[in-house]
# Entry
Amino acid sequence: MTSSPQTTRTAIELPPSVHLERGPGGLPRLRVAGRGGGAEIYFQGAHVTAWRPTGGEPVIWLSGASNYSPGAPIRGGIPICFPWFGPNALDPSAPLHGFARLHAWEIVEADEVGDDVSLTFRLSDSEDTRASAWPFAFEATYRVVVGTTLQLSLEIVNRSSAAVTYEEALHTYFSVGDVRDIAVRGLSGARYQDRVLGVGSVQEGVEPLRIEQETDRMYSDSAGTVTIEDTRGDRVIRIRKERSGATVVWNPWIEKSKAMADFGDDEWVETVCVEPCNAGSTAVRLDPGARHRMAATIDVLPLTYR
Ligand code: BG6
# Structure
């Protein structure tokens, strides 16, 4: 696919805590150094690749083997999956997880609000997206608030004259001390599709989820808060979700990591993906002109939190 042009300057004025720079591969990104926290966000995919609350350790994981080139997904951080999740159901040749992470988003607002820094990015349909497996008119607005918490909200407006259905995920890679030593809580009782075993395999979540092998699960009926108890990292990462009916948990484990060129062979130990999403049975249907906003707030708590 053709990628959108990469921004070398912004149309809006940036506040003092936000700097425009070039990252690896020359890809432009914003470096945010707010009082509450710091972050890094690439225009390509409006992709957050780092966040840490001031005085804390990094929360978001980024692969040392990632690609950084226009039109290729960055490995790690928070890819936005939209308007489909995983392979496209109608077109197996379409890129995995949709086109949103492959296009340059435009920044439309950047403000300091108390100790937080709020940034808003926008992506609308283009000739490229209209030629894709999801050819509809839309406007996507992604707001990232960087502070002692990381607040993410993705709003989609249907600008087409017909109803549309889409899937979406904030495919967050979290940094953990050792993935074999974490407990994921908040998914108990939710049914999940085991994507390692195949789409037909539906099971019920038990508490806590421990990662002991390749894990790729889509939990439906999981609109509530999910926590990652990270014993080695001595902290709990909390993900509070709004209007996200499903959660994906993914870790590629040993063999799959080796098979992925943009994922270090041993990096599977350092990360787990917990992804607020609306996909599969929770895909969103929007009438013409209607909008839907999915949001997540991430923060860090002491290990004693449960
Ligand atoms: C997860 C999916 O969300 O993303 C996995 O559940 C997939 O099936 C993983 O392998 C990574 O996808 P990609 O396209 O970034 O390699």
Remarks:
- The radius of gyration is 18 Å.
- The longest strand covers residues 291-301.
- Residues 73, 86, 96-97, 171, 195, 216, 248, 250, 273, 275 surround 6-O-phosphono-beta-D-glucopyranose (CB under 6 Å).
- Residues 253-259 form the longest helix (7 residues).
